[in-house]
Amino acid sequence: MPENIKIPKKITNSKNYKLAFIHKSFDKDQNNERLEFLGDAVIQLAISEKLHHEEQHFNEGELTRIRAKLVNTSFLSSVCKKHDFHKYIKASKGTNSLSEYQKDKVYAGMLEAIIGAVFLESDYYYASKFVYKLFGDELYSLDSTKDAKTILQEYCQSNNIELPSYHSTEDNKSNEFVCTLNINNMTIEAKHVQKKISEQLAAKKALTMITK
Fold first, then answer.
1. 9-141 falls under which CATH superfamily?
2. Among 40, 104, 147, 199, the one annotated catalytic
3. End-to-end CA distance of the chain
4. Strands 165-171 and 176-183, bridge-based pairing
5. Domain boundaries, the chain
6. How far apart are CA 78 and CA 74, in angstroms?
7. When comparing pLDDT for 205 and 127, which is higher?
8. Can you tell me the distance from the alpha carbon of 210 to that of 151, in angstroms, rounded to the nearest whole number?
9. Region class of 5: left (phi > 0), else alpha (psi between -120 and 50), else beta
10. 74-98 pLDDT, tens per residue?
């Protein structure tokens, strides 16, 4: 099983977890379809909850667009492959012979099934934390039609506040970009391995501070 995501043995040894890796082409009776259905609901709720609490400056439509980017087939498949779950799928020879692009739906469904199994063998709290761990930085790299930097700029313009300035430097020790944002006599810093995300995180911090 994947080594970069630690899952308790009581879960990985369970019948449900093992079933999550069985595609319907391998066994038409005992497969992961029902777990896929459940896992989809867990992901939707976990992502909705996180966006509700952490993205205070987006309206309902923008939150819906962000969530859609995080739960679509292509993205879920990429998460599945990122953590190497796809290497353990049980599927027919025909399914296994498909191109990686054609197997996106298979991998996405399997990831949903795994999350469904984790939920059944633990609880919602653990399953939601599991989802956040799987998605990692992608939770912060996908934006709605208006990202934090754009919202911050528009807020400043509408409130006669001098526009923010961004300055990024690379920390060779941590391999992270340190973004320094100056706005309204405040200096705000944020770090991330991707320069773009460090700027977004700094902008989000600034929005929280100047809109209190």
1. Ribonuclease III domain (1.10.1520.10)
2. 40
3. 45
4. antiparallel
5. 9-141, 148-210
6. 6
7. 127
8. 12
9. beta
10. 889 989 998 999 999 999 999 999 8
> Would the pLDDT of 142 be above 80?
no
CA atoms within 13 A of residue 201's CA, in its CB half-sphere: 20
34 pLDDT exceeds 90?
yes
Beta carbons within 8 Å of 100's beta carbon, 6+ residues apart: none
Out of 54-68, 78-92, 160-174, 189-203, give the one with best mean pLDDT: 78-92
The catalytic position among 36, 62, 104, 112 is 112
DSSP H stretches of helix in the chain = 9-12, 15-19, 33-54, 60-71, 73-82, 93-96, 104-121, 124-135, 138-141, 148-158, 195-210
What are the structure tokens assigned to 24, written together?
């319907």
3-state secondary structure of 80: helix
Tell me the whole-structure pTM to 2 decimals.
0.68
Whether 112 is a known active-site residue: answer: yes
CB 191, CB 208: distance < 8 Å: no
In the chain, the amino acid numbered 43 is I
The DSSP-derived string for 99-160 is -TTTTHHHHHHHHHHHHHHHHHHS-HHHHHHHHHHHHTTHHHH---SS-HHHHHHHHHHHTT
49 is catalytic: no
Copy the structure tokens of residue 153. Answer: 């700029």
- Topology annotation, domain 148-210: Double Stranded RNA Binding Domain (3.30.160)
